[in-house]
């Protein structure tokens, strides 16, 4: 009598040690390790407005290197003489068109990325903010990095934001606002 087939999925075999993809990744990692390191500090925030009983956050969409639109929180470099709070307020206004007031800090994240000529360690201060005025737009973004700006329900940020560290900031904001995510 024939045996029924095993319903368990089979493990995907690993490529051999000399596999071309593994070699390219290792070579890229070696090149990145040889690049100079720079440290950058930025600030941004989650600017909130309530409409019809729903808390909305001003977010921006940017194209990644592959050309896909990624949703993220507005943020940018702290300029000379600025505090993180001043930079966050300025960056939210520039990237989203929204004038906002800081309610409280919600966290600091840090991450690494590799540019063409250096590795960057970036630290970003995030603030919970209340939208006070303005019209959501990317027209005033001096770097033209933001392609689109939209109000997104805070309850949807965890599924819409592209980066896990920003989703953590959105979760903290939702908890502070007592919003189920």
Task: Describe the structure in your own words.
With 181 residues, this protein is of the alpha+beta class. 25% of the residues lie in helices and 39% in strands. Strands 1, 2, 3, 4, 5, 6 and 7 form a seven-stranded mixed sheet that branches. The protein is globular, with a radius of gyration of 21 Å. The model has no long low-confidence stretch (mean pLDDT 88).
Keywords:
181 residues, 4 helices, alpha+beta
Give the SSE layout.
Elements: H1 20-34, E1 37-51, E2 54-63, E3 69-72, E4 75-77, H2 84-96, E5 98-114, E6 119-134, E7 148-153, H3 157-160, H4 164-176
Parallel strand pairs: 1-6
Antiparallel strand pairs: 1-2, 1-4, 2-3, 2-7, 5-6
Q: How can the largest sheet be summarized?
A: 7 strands, mixed
Contiguous helical run count: 4
Rg computed from alpha carbons, rounded to a whole number of angstroms: 21 Å
Instruction: Identify the overall geometry.
Output: globular
* End-to-end CA span: 52 Å
- Class computed from helices, strands and strand pairing: alpha+beta
Instruction: Provide the succession of SSEs.
Output: HEEEEHEEEHH
Total strands: 7
Say what oligomer this is.
Answer: single chain
What fraction of the residues are assigned to beta strands by DSSP? 35-45%
Low-confidence stretches are none
């Amino acid at each position: 009598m024939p045996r029924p087939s095993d319903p368990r999925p089979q493990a995907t075999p690993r490529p051999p040690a000399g596999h071309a993809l593994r070699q390219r990744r290792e070579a890229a990692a070696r090149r990145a390790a040889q690049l100079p390191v720079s440290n950058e500090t930025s600030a941004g925030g989650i600017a909130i407005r309530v409409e019809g009983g729903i808390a909305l956050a001003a977010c921006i969409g940017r194209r990644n290197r592959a050309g896909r639109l990624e949703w993220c929180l507005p943020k940018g470099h702290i300029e000379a003489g600025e505090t993180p709070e001043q930079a966050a307020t300025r960056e939210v206004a520039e990237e989203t068109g929204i004038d906002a007031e800081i309610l409280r800090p919600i966290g600091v994240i840090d991450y690494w990325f590799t540019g063409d000529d250096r590795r960057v360690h970036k630290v970003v201060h995030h603030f919970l903010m209340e939208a006070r005025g303005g019209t959501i737009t990317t027209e005033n973004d001096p770097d033209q990095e933001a392609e689109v700006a939209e109000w997104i329900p805070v309850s949807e940020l965890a599924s819409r934001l592209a980066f896990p560290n920003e989703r953590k900031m959105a979760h903290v904001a939702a908890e502070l606002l007592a919003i189920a995510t």
